[in-house]
């Protein structure tokens, strides 16, 4: 870290270090404010934000539509609990199910406060639907579904999973993208298959063409539920409302969070067909789930994606980003993966952390999602000009990262 020991960022880091649990390590940058695609740190440095709080701040920072929706709602009615109905949650459920398109007419929604909670709801939902005797779950190696015990049990990353087991859930892991392994693992004792359309936390790892279709047919053949975790990929990130729409495949259960609230905490578990009504009264709940402020934020996100034509912009600007990075032809860059504004820059050696810090020193926030993958997931509102600023700076960033490595 280059900031002096007396900088505001460093002072805050020291306080963080003393009173926050060490699970995150101490982040090197303290952010104080954001506007559009930019954020400022405690020392006054401005960054172009290509992380968006891990694919969350879909409208960027302080978007007027989000500010107004949240401010108006908090001034009107901030919380009701689920003992009372309020219109925002009904409206949001109506909008989300409509966005699914064909097949979504049967869908119903449970609102939670995070991604992991959306997957916990999905887990209970599929087990309720399967009944007793059919409790095995199949998930994928290196997949990520969250940090609470149920979602963690489904997460195929040994480093974060193994210290907390056993989980009391029968989960089998198959290599991601391997149709034959999935076919072998799924039988009529299997309640559900949990899968991401592209593995986000693994480093934007794409499945081979046709994989989601194969998951669909394996689930159809065995009666297992197909749960698609679109917590990171959903709500416009790939240039479609949902990544599965590109594949033309409809899951039984869809989980959402991250970009849905544009920075306000909200998750959703969407059940389709018989999964829409698999929970009976009393089966699940959340005090904060469907909170009016979070729902108002999500409605503002959906409205703004429509009003500003962001799905087309994501496709165009995502292509620009991928082509721009590829065109650099630097030996450290192995390739660019992903779709829309959800990209992994794969490196030829494990220097992603060095690229992340060199990028910050040049005024760009990117994320070392894996030792050899840099994740770029900017606000959906990013402009072609801002992407050009990043691709223009990237050669110097890579040079600085390589220099760090050799000194
Ligand atoms: C982030 C993420 C989660 C967990 O969401 P939280 O809000 O952090 O609980 C689950 N699944 C996927 C695919 C994610 O990217």
TrEMBL record:
<feature type="binding site">
    <location>
        <begin position="115"/>
        <end position="116"/>
    </location>
    <ligand>
        <name>pyridoxal 5'-phosphate</name>
    </ligand>
</feature>
<keyword id="KW-0808">Transferase</keyword>
<dbReference type="InterPro" id="IPR004636">
    <property type="entry name" value="AcOrn/SuccOrn_fam"/>
</dbReference>
<feature type="binding site">
    <location>
        <position position="144"/>
    </location>
    <ligand>
        <name>pyridoxal 5'-phosphate</name>
    </ligand>
</feature>
<dbReference type="InterPro" id="IPR015421">
    <property type="entry name" value="PyrdxlP-dep_Trfase_major"/>
</dbReference>
<dbReference type="InterPro" id="IPR049704">
    <property type="entry name" value="Aminotrans_3_PPA_site"/>
</dbReference>
<dbReference type="InterPro" id="IPR015422">
    <property type="entry name" value="PyrdxlP-dep_Trfase_small"/>
</dbReference>
<dbReference type="GO" id="GO:0003992">
    <property type="term" value="F:N2-acetyl-L-ornithine:2-oxoglutarate 5-aminotransferase activity"/>
</dbReference>
<dbReference type="Pfam" id="PF00202">
    <property type="entry name" value="Aminotran_3"/>
</dbReference>
<dbReference type="InterPro" id="IPR015424">
    <property type="entry name" value="PyrdxlP-dep_Trfase"/>
</dbReference>
<keyword id="KW-0963">Cytoplasm</keyword>
<keyword id="KW-0028">Amino-acid biosynthesis</keyword>
<keyword id="KW-0663">Pyridoxal phosphate</keyword>
<keyword id="KW-0055">Arginine biosynthesis</keyword>
<comment type="pathway">
    <text>Amino-acid biosynthesis; L-arginine biosynthesis; N(2)-acetyl-L-ornithine from L-glutamate: step 4/4.</text>
</comment>
<keyword id="KW-0032">Aminotransferase</keyword>
<feature type="binding site">
    <location>
        <begin position="229"/>
        <end position="232"/>
    </location>
    <ligand>
        <name>pyridoxal 5'-phosphate</name>
    </ligand>
</feature>
<comment type="similarity">
    <text>Belongs to the class-III pyridoxal-phosphate-dependent aminotransferase family. ArgD subfamily.</text>
</comment>
<protein>
    <recommendedName>
        <fullName>Acetylornithine aminotransferase</fullName>
        <ecNumber>2.6.1.11</ecNumber>
    </recommendedName>
</protein>
<feature type="binding site">
    <location>
        <position position="287"/>
    </location>
    <ligand>
        <name>pyridoxal 5'-phosphate</name>
    </ligand>
</feature>
<dbReference type="InterPro" id="IPR005814">
    <property type="entry name" value="Aminotrans_3"/>
</dbReference>
<feature type="binding site">
    <location>
        <position position="147"/>
    </location>
    <ligand>
        <name>N(2)-acetyl-L-ornithine</name>
    </ligand>
</feature>
<dbReference type="InterPro" id="IPR050103">
    <property type="entry name" value="Class-III_PLP-dep_AT"/>
</dbReference>
<feature type="binding site">
    <location>
        <position position="286"/>
    </location>
    <ligand>
        <name>N(2)-acetyl-L-ornithine</name>
    </ligand>
</feature>
<comment type="subunit">
    <text>Homodimer.</text>
</comment>
<feature type="modified residue" description="N6-(pyridoxal phosphate)lysine">
    <location>
        <position position="258"/>
    </location>
</feature>
